[in-house]
Amino acid sequence: MKALVLIIFLLFSSFSYASFQSSKTENWNAIANDITSKTARIIQQERGLCLIGTGGGAGIEGHLRKLNMSFVHNGELSMEEGRELVVYCVQEYLEAINGNEKIRPHLVHYPFTPRDVEIAIFIHRQDGRQAPIGFLSVVAGLYGQISYSINQPGPKTLKKVHQETYEEAVQLVKRHPVKSQEKLAFLLGHVGRG
To answer: How confident is the model at residue 15 (pLDDT cuts 50, 70, 90)?
Structure first.
């Protein structure tokens, strides 16, 4: 009889714990989705990027360890313009995450850093077709690194042409900001390069 009571207690406890863990994940998932949605709207309004994907991941004990967003930009970008966009997106996302007190207890650590968010910007032509061969096609901030890839012919269509740390990218943006007229033009999608 004692064994049966013990088994029932253990089963109830394990179901309760699993249910508790699931509700914790659902709780941070809803908060993270809200943060991501609001940040994506700001980025679209401020920079004209269109959100095409989101994600995240849980780590130890179900704590949130990573959040990510992917965007499309219509119109060619230089490496400098792409750098500025990725730095802007990472900063906006980090400010939103770290500024939200409800998500903090669910983060694997606080504050979140550039290593904890992923931003990918896929660059298309104005008409929505993929960037031409030899032109910047993807700028991505992953694991605290910014990488730049171009389209190339052949089965492996993307080629990484440059990589730098997030900190290096921030310093470059501060030292060499895109000229305001050029910035305005590319944000409005009116830059033509051949």
So the answer is: very low
